[in-house]
Amino acid sequence: MSMYGRDPWGGPLEICHDSATDDDRSRNLDLDRGALSRTLDETQQSWLLAGPGDQGRKKKKYVDLGCLVVSRKLFVWTVGVLLAAAVFAGLVAGIAKAIPRHHRPPPPPDDFTVALRKALMFFNAQKSGKLPKNNNVHWRGNSCMKDGLSDPAVGRSLVGGYYDAGDAVKFNFPAAFSMTLLSWSVIEYSAKYEAVGELGHIRDTIKWGADYFLKTFNSTADTIDRVVMQVGSGATSPGSTQPNDHYCWMRPEDIDYPRPVVECHACSDLAAEMAASLAAASIVFKDNKAYSQKLVHGATTLFKFARQNRGRYSAGGSDAAKFYNSTSYWDEFVWGGSWMYLATGNSSYLQLATHPKLAKHAGAYWGGPDYGVFSWDNKLTGAQVLLSRLRLFLSPGYPYEEILRTFHNQTSIIMCSYLPIFKSFNRTKDTPGWYCGPHFYPIETLRNFARTQIEYILGKNPLKMSYVVGYGNRYPKRVHHRGASIPKNGVHYGCKGGWKWRETKKPNPNIIVGAMVAGPDRHDGFKDVRKNYNYTEATLAGNAGLVAALVALSGEGHGVDKNTMFSAVPPMFPSPPPPPAPWKP
């Protein structure tokens, strides 16, 4: 008897009823259990596990990689190929490394870069105090190590700083201007300094000056009543035999006469220029937060003193009036205020620097023999360039726009006046001429003109002479400089003992590399005579201007750093408000 049902897997389900008894089925089940309990050998297991047609085949071996199971044969083959490839690549690399390479040598530095490196060495030769080991001027040594301490009225160390020129006087007014110029050049052309390997050198040069200036007043105070303006004396009264830095002709290392310190209590021009110098240096050293803040604090104290204690530092017939007479302090207010704004971002300094009355007092609206001449005495032109940059790059708008636009226009006029077609300045005959006025001249025209002026200094002139010592084959050999003109031979030449070296017609025994001498007269004439300082003396301020011009013209690329100068300036306009929160029903 059979019953048929439906197999859910697709076939008929048949239930059969046979004649076997339950006891028979039980005995059969016991036999099956015994068979299952017996251990199977490997062959039997393979028969049971093998699928149809697999019997007789060789079993494959596999490698378990954790996340992947692969054939052992494939795994071994792959690893072998990778090892062979690695060995081959190593052999190729070794052969390539063993082959001698012929690199194309870097191009030689251009003339301006060569001159730049030399011009920076002049500041090493002018250092006063305990010299660093890397000063690299073999004929210089420690000097004037008692400055300030030997003056009972001062009684504190004023060691350090720079000698102004061929003597050993430290005039802070032109020295501060020199350091401001050098800082400005670094702020705009640090990439160029770094490219020629001189960034560390120029930073050390600036820091040497800044550290000394911090000694010349109480730099930790918020309010001061005096500033050191000069160390040493250059007075030369007729018939006077008093030993000083002009009467004597001595190496700075041998100076044994008293060096007086001169302080001022109302010297707006000096204090504002020193403030500008420290403010500009604070931007150069913004990567050193503590030192930069120290410089900013000193600059703030100095500028406050300059504004509250009005007066010219050179008034009263002092040494300063004879050598570096200041004609006014209004231009230093514009110049110093501009640098203070760039160093602090405090808008009160910008408001001062752009005040119309201050511009009027500084001479922005009238001409004169010094209009457009940027020098240690006249900073208006430099301040106008700084503020024109501010207008071009940041566009501060109202309430500064009117005076900034005026300064920008005046800067353009001054730039045109430098070109030889105008008769504003005395110049030699060999400079080419351009036209200005209604015609537009690209910036390259002005750069070409600047290039001709520096090339003239470096030797492209009627005398074929370089006016930078150590540059080229022909340069001045009798520089008006005490240290360079006296041999370092172990002999101590006293105040008058060094006069013979001043009078000799022989070349200086020491080459003061990088010194730009005063240069030729208006007829391209030059006399290489040591006693004639109008031709052969070099100064800090002159060389600072030379360094700034050389780095601007050196190397490739004309662009300036537009970010560093304004790194402390906050956004000119308020930030837009944040977007509203998403609307929720």
Notable traits:
mainly alpha, polysaccharide degradation, cellulose degradation, 585 residues, three-stranded antiparallel β-sheet, transmembrane, Glycosyltransferase, disordered N terminus, two-stranded antiparallel sheet
Task: Please tell me about this protein's structure.
With 585 residues, the chain is mainly α. The protein has a domain at 112-326 and 459-566: Alpha/alpha barrel (Glycosyltransferase), CATH 1.50.10.10. 43% of the residues lie in helices and 5% in strands. It is built from 19 helices and 7 strands. The strands form 3 sheets. The protein has a 3-stranded antiparallel beta sheet with strand order 5-6-7. Helix 5 packs parallel to helix 7 (268-284), helix 5 runs parallel beside helix 19 (540-553) and helix 15 (443-458) crosses helix 19. The longest helix has 27 residues, at 72-98. Residues 1-22, 24-38 and 42-56 have low confidence and may be disordered.
